[in-house]
Amino acid sequence: MFIWSGVSPYLPEPAVTAVLSWVGAHSSPRTSVVFDAIWGSVLGGDSDLFGAQELLRSVAQVGEPLRWGIPDGQVNETLEPMRLHAQRVLTPEALAAYVTRTDGSLLGRPYGFGIIVHARVDLAGWSNP
What we know:
Blueprint: E1 2-4, H1 13-25, E2 32-38, H2 52-62, H3 75-79, E3 84-90, H4 92-95, E4 114-121
Parallel strand pairs: 1-2
Antiparallel strand pairs: 2-4, 3-4
């Protein structure tokens, strides 16, 4: 299992593609990768997703621009060329379960642009390199 956290939004697309393609090509069908990403609509600067404008201001202040995101709702379409298939995508709505208290109240609202992806090597295209 590969865990890749806090990295992909800051890398240019060719770097993200290279890493995820390496996982897809140099792993067994049992291999998983878990990574966080942002929806691509945030990159344009005009997203109305919760917290997007605050994130853009924050990364601009520290000089760390966002460079890569998954086109909104297109996780498998994005991963397919890298020989990966999403097993689970935790959207902001799904992530709310992790910040919900036992009484049902929210500890905090997840940002509307962040997702966590659990992907596996696409079995249809796998062969032992």
